[in-house]
Write a structure and sequence with these properties.
80 residues, mainly alpha, 60% helix
């Protein structure tokens, strides 16, 4: 049976991974920004990746963000 919740260190690592991905996408954005390809990158992959993580600036309607998954796996978010 699949686990419903994660240990605090696992949740923390997921948060770290999310933040690392965001940082890398932001770095890639800075690299691409001065190019002619920036508008399409911004409209597609930059927005999709960031909205899938949790960035509301790029709300593309991700069904479930990574942050929502982290929250759902956190036993401290249990509603009684």
């Amino acid at each position: 049976m699949p686990k419903r919740y994660l240990k605090p260190d696992q949740l923390s690592r997921l948060e770290d991974i999310k933040d690392e991905i965001k940082g890398l996408v932001r770095e890639a954005t800075r690299i691409v920004r001065p190019t002619a390809e920036y508008p399409s990158a911004h409209a597609y992959w930059i927005g999709h990746i960031l909205s899938a993580l949790d960035d509301e600036e790029y709300d593309s309607g991700s069904a479930t963000t990574m942050q929502e998954t982290i929250d759902a796996l956190d036993p401290l978010t249990l509603e009684d």
